[in-house]
Amino acid sequence: MIEDDTELAEILTEYLKQFNIKVTNYEDPFLALSSLKLNTYDLIILDLTLPGMDGLDVCKAIVKDFDIPIIISSARSDITDKVTALQLGADDYLPKPYDPRELEVRVKTILRRFNHTNVQEEKSKTFKLDLDKKEITKNDKYIKLTAAEFEVLSLLIKREGFVISREDIFDNSDLLNQDYEGSGSLAVIINRIRQKIEDNPKEPKYLHTIRGMGYKFHNE
Q1: CATH 3.40.50.2300 fits 6-121, yes or no
Q2: Position with higher pLDDT, 62 vs 114
Q3: If you placed Cys at 26, which of 32, 118, 174, 212 could pair as Cys (CB 3.0 to 4.6 Å)?
């Protein structure tokens, strides 16, 4: 849990404890993000109004680097925040105040769905992404990628089925920016990826260009 309201955090922690749900709370979002690199968590309950860093930015950082379901727990009433959080990749949005029983049900529901999905994907997906090893495989065969290619393809895989704009790719990249040109341009990187993953790069089955919008990835 990333929540700077310590009283609320204690109440929720004690309540969820009776359902064998162990909660570790961080008031500081920077400490929380650091902890994610060192520890394994099943789910994140994220407040949006945090000290030093907006919760939406925290959500964006988590989705970029980790495959963990997120429940937004927020007192913000602006529908834009809810829409933005869900677009960034949050799995649920719970407006404060709420009954702890509702949080308990949502946590269990999302964990059940998330765990089931992971099992299904492990069995059926053509492409598998291993962020810890910085590896992507196709039908369990390793794909040799440059750092930029891995960064772009991993983002597309994580957001499978959604159109990802050029701006989204740049915003979520540590290696690319809007002035990235020449041999390292995004279009060139996309073409190089297609050469490595498609049976026929001229008629792509997995990585599609959506004219005027961006790119969409299908992991069949």
Answers
A1: yes
A2: 62
A3: 32
Tokens 């992971």 map to which residue? 118
Chosen CATH of 125-217 out of 1.10.1200.120, 1.10.357.20, 3.40.50.10070, 1.10.10.10: 1.10.10.10
How much is the pLDDT for 116?
Answer: 56
Query: How high is the pLDDT of residue 1?
Result: 97
Cα–Cα distances in angstroms (integers) from residue 165 to residues 148, 169, 172, 215, 217, in the given order: 16, 6, 11, 6, 12
Q: Torsion over CA of 18, 20, 23 and 24, rounded to 10 degrees? A: 120
Instruction: Enter the tokens of residue 1.
Output: 């849990």
Among residues 25, 40, 76, 3, the alpha carbon closest in space to that of 85 is found at 76
CB 93 within 8 A of CB 82: yes
pLDDT digits (tens, 9 = 90+) for 181-196: 443 588 999 999 999 9
Average pLDDT rounded to a whole number, residues 1-30: 93
Write the DSSP assignment of 16-82 as a string of letters.
HHTTT-----BSSHHHHHHHHTTS--S-EEE-SS-SSS-HHHHHHHHHHH----EEEEE----HHHH
The domain segmentation of the chain, as residue ranges, is 6-121, 125-217
- Return the amino acid letter for 199: D
**Using one digit for the tens of pLDDT, what is the confidence trace for 78-90?**
888 889 999 898 9
Q: Mind giving me the DSSP string for 129-142?
A: EETTTTEEEETTEE
